[in-house]
Amino acid sequence: MQEVTTSSSRFAMLRARPKIAGFTLVEIMIVVVIIGMLAAMAIPAFQKVRQSSRHSALANDMRSFAQAFETYSHENGSWPGDTGIGVVPNEMLNNNSSLDVTAFSSTTPIGGRYDWDGGVFGYIAAVSVADATITNAQLLQFDTSFDDGNLNTGDFCGTTGRYSYVILE
């Protein structure tokens, strides 16, 4: 004989089933929202640290290159001749030079290449970055920490695409 199940006995069977462990959709959504909020706070902080690191690397490079060229000038009584972008002056290739040839020939921390400006662009001696890929606003931030905060005055100056650390005007 077939048993007839009533709605109350079905409910009793559903309640008697063992619970399966797991997360509800709401719990998963809350975790996703929290992770999104943490990422939204961390990404700008990471970008700021990365930009600060690039600025520090650029300042260090500019100062060490300027020091190497100044040392050359003091030892030889003249500045090296002008070269092309990313090209180390022949005078600086000897073993006595403190110039880091690899760093000078590499891409700068702000994009573009280093350039020695000897007697060009109105400067007697300058280390420049040509074809920089960062914005003027970012360069102003760099100039504020490195020099005077004005790209038209001071030791670090320039126009769009070419920025120079002036050693001697």
Task: Please give a structural write-up.
With 169 residues, the chain is an alpha+beta fold. It has one domain (23-168). Helices cover 46% and strands 14% of the residues. It has a 4-stranded antiparallel sheet with strand order 1-2-4-3, covered by helices on one side. A hairpin with a 2-residue loop joins strand 3 (156-159) and strand 4 (162-168). The chain is elongated, with a radius of gyration of 31 Å. The model has no long low-confidence stretch (mean pLDDT 88).
Attribute tags:
169 residues, alpha+beta, four-stranded antiparallel β-sheet
Give the spatial strand order of the biggest sheet: 1-2-4-3
Order of helices and strands: HHHEEHEE
Mean pLDDT: 88
In the predicted model, the low-confidence regions spanning at least 5 consecutive residues are none
Based on DSSP secondary structure assignment, what is the total number of beta strands?
4
Given the helix and strand composition, which structural class is it?
alpha+beta
What is the rounded Rg?
31 Å
SS summary, helix count = 4
Largest sheet: 4 strands, antiparallel
Approximately what portion of the residues adopt beta-strand conformation? 5-15%
| Dominant shape | elongated
Helix content estimate: 40-55%
Number of domains: 1
Cα end-to-end separation: 110 Å
Summarize, please:
The chain is α+β, with helices and mostly antiparallel strands and 169 residues long.
Write the layout of secondary structure elements.
Elements: H1 7-16, H2 25-76, H3 101-105, E1 113-118, E2 125-130, H4 136-146, E3 156-159, E4 162-168
Antiparallel strand pairs: 1-2, 2-4, 3-4
